[in-house]
Amino acid sequence: MSDGRLPVRRRWLRWTVGVILTLLVLAIGWVTIRGIGAVSDLQRVSTSSSQLKAAIGEGDLEKATRLSDRIAHHAESAHGLTSDPVWHAFGVLPWIGPNFSAVSDVAEIADEVASQALVPVLDVAGRLDLASLGFSGGRIDLTPFATIEPPLADAAATLSAAEERALAIDADATLPPLADAVGEMRSAVTQAATVVGSLHGAAALLPSMLGAEGPRNYVIAMQNNAELRSSGGIIGAIALLHAENGQISLLQQASTMDFPALTESLPLSESSVALFEDRPGRYLQNITNIPDFTEAGPLVAARWQQRFGTPVDGVIAVDAVMTENLLAATGPLAFGPFTVTEDDVVSLLLSGIYTAVPDPAAQDQIFAQAAGALFGAALSGTDPKALVAALATSADQDRIRIWSAHEDEEELLAGTALGGALPRDDATSHVGVLFNDTTGAKMDYYTDATITTAVGRCDGESTTRVSVTWTNNAPADAGTTLPEYVTGGGTYGVEPGMVRTLVTVYGPEGATPSRVDREGGGPDGDVQTALLGTRSAVQQELLLAPGESATITVDFRGTGAGNRLTEVDHTPMIRDPETSYEELRCSP
Hints:
This protein is of the alpha+beta class. It has helices at 8-57, 61-81, 85-91, 97-127, 144-168, 176-209, 270-276, 279-282, 293-308, 322-330, 345-356, 360-378, 384-396, 407-414, 478-481, 484-487; strands at 216-224, 234-244, 247-255, 314-319, 333-335, 338-340, 400-404, 429-437, 447-458, 461-472, 499-506, 511-519, 528-532, 535-544, 549-558, 566-570, 578-581. Strands 3-2-1-4-7 form a five-stranded mixed sheet. α3 (85-91) crosses α4 and α10 runs antiparallel to α13 (384-396).
């Protein structure tokens, strides 16, 4: 006979299942409530961050400080809500787990950035009055930099670590809205890391580089983007700056005609010789063929020292498009017979001047006058905040490169974007496209590029594809209507109006080219391959008539290829290339 009760084992099983279900319901409720709170906090962080960026742009540091405190509070709250054991337990579950892990990672990164980078940087900004830097008369007060360098170093290290963690989040495994949020966060952290890293580099380097420990001399190489070279353009004008105790002066200006071709080349790397023969070592104008400024900078210094005998402490390369950014700070600029604004300075310097002033020697004089006027305007009464913003924009566009002859300074510079070294791959892989004119003219005012990348697997191997389309947008009658100095007049074997260009595509570190395709661009020529530092590079020469385009496609396979986090670097041009990402379709 039964007493109506379940056997002990069945009662224990039902009790156990009931407890588990209850705990599961409680856990789901727990993470749901905390998740809603965390998402709300992160949304407030995002909103306040946008307001903070606007406040900093307006120079309202009081408002920026309030916003940074608000960001730090909400970031800390979001981190706390997503860092308990229950939340982490949901992070290991299949399918839904990556979403929990991503939210937790985003919250932790936001908390670290806000508390260890944002607040200290704004504290530094509050203690440093840009107006006190004393730009008036070309002098900069160097004493504040010793105070701000240590906190900027800590902030830069925090942001660098945060950038690495942000890039490591597997956004592809999360829901689309969360993936978009992760992408936005990555972009914001990367931008902040770049800016603060540059600020730290400036705080560490400026005192010594501006002569706090003794006088310095710097060669300024001004590149003309209308005749492209890897780092921006042919060297069109060159000058010597002197810095002593923060006082900056323009000592000497020279023309490329002061530097005749050398009979014997200066020493070049194997990569440079393989891609450009000995031209960068013999011609000053072609030194910027070399994409790595740690190699190009010393060559510029050597040429100046050989020609004038002046010791050189460093080289600064800038391009003509940078003048647009500087005129946004200085206002209109008058030189020679011209007055220009930020809206028309590039078109005059890179196109209009060749029609208005046909004589090349007279053009060089006007370029020198423009450089002198711009230098004087920048360091004499320009709003320091506007000037710093213009320089920061130019650096972000890769239009400034700096090499120092002092080993300790160069070691620090080489690790920044300002150093102009080839990129190194880490969590992010880099590919690049370099453009070098061989028309021997100024036709690149009319050229444009589009660059497309795709990553994935083909034939079982990790693959990164880079496609480059190069277009000659010159008018159909360019050969007869443009000045001979612009078209080249056929001097180097190129029919007037046509454009001849060396296009170099390099892949991720460790990857090698497995396929090279070309559509258009004249007769198929030799495909050059070379090692560019630690990267494989493919180079072809294209010849285009007005209105024509050509496309080069290179597949790279092997170690480093197939990384979904792939960035594109390219030669700074008058108009930035259009870059896009597309799905990888393997060739049959």
